[in-house]
Design brief:
By secondary structure, the protein is an alpha/beta fold. The protein has a single domain, classed as 3-Layer(aba) Sandwich (Rossmann fold), CATH 3.40.50.300. About 35% of the residues lie in helices and about 20% in strands. The chain contains six helices and seven strands; from the N terminus they run H-E-H-E-H-H-E-E-E-E-H-H-E. Strand 3 (about 100-105) and strand 4 (about 110-120) form a beta hairpin. Helix 1 crosses helix 2. The radius of gyration is 17 Å and the shape is globular. The two termini are about 15 Å apart.
Length: about 210
């Protein structure tokens, strides 16, 4: 059976590599479905003969104690609540180095765990997924030079709003609190991604069925 993401996988495989491994940026606002698409795309690439691995950006969340000291805890998830310099160092290592270890974010405990992820030595394609991979802002803008190909997820803001509210409802918040959390932080970040990101090589309609 042909994978529904086969055309996107083929586009990625045709992109010239800058390093030993191809680096794919999978960017989009919160609630756009980056994690789901990343895993589905990895499956399509495996069917096409690649050895892909997904590396999330979320492991570079600053710890809540640091955010509290900076007065940024309520804005957790905004660009300045990440260790962008540390993330850039990881991106520089992913192309050629082995082994490569990276932090992973534990959403249940709301903490990043150092060295919890490792890049398979046989990996030839790294799918990096995160909100700000294409953001045109200091620190983040430097990342664009490292991507072999970039994919931006396209989701209308009203759909993002409902997905984000549903996410917080699932986390146990009351309806009013879930809406306030989505409007007060997540959707601010979503609009920032939509309005201040550089052009991607591929714009993917993440509202259409693909799994």
């Amino acid at each position: 059976m042909t994978h529904p993401l086969g055309p996107l996988a083929a586009r990625i495989m045709a992109a010239p590599r800058k390093s030993k491994r191809r680096l794919v940026a999978l960017a989009g606002p919160p609630g756009s479905g980056k994690s789901t698409l990343a895993e589905a795309l990895a499956g399509a690439l495996r069917e096409a003969g690649c050895t892909p691995q997904v590396v999330p950006m979320d492991g570079f969340h600053l710890d809540n104690r640091i955010l509290t000291g900076l007065g940024l805890l309520d804005r957790k998830g905004a660009p300045d609540t990440f260790d962008v310099a540390g993330f850039a160092r990881l991106m520089a290592a992913l192309g050629d180095q082995t082994p490569v270890y990276y932090p992973v974010f534990d959403r249940t405990r709301d903490i990043a765990i150092a060295g919890a992820g490792t890049l398979d030595a046989h990996c030839d394609t790294v799918i990096v997924e995160g909100n700000y991979l294409l953001l045109d802002a200091p620190g983040w803008a430097d990342l664009s030079a490292g991507w072999d190909i970039s994919v931006r997820l396209d989701v209308p803001i009203d759909i993002l709003r409902q997905r984000l509210v549903d996410r917080w409802l699932h986390e146990g918040l009351a309806p009013a609190a879930a809406l306030a959390r989505a409007e007060g932080n997540d959707l601010k970040n979503a609009r920032l991604v939509q309005e201040q990101s550089v052009l991607a090589d591929v714009v993917f309609d993440a509202t259409a069925p693909y799994i």
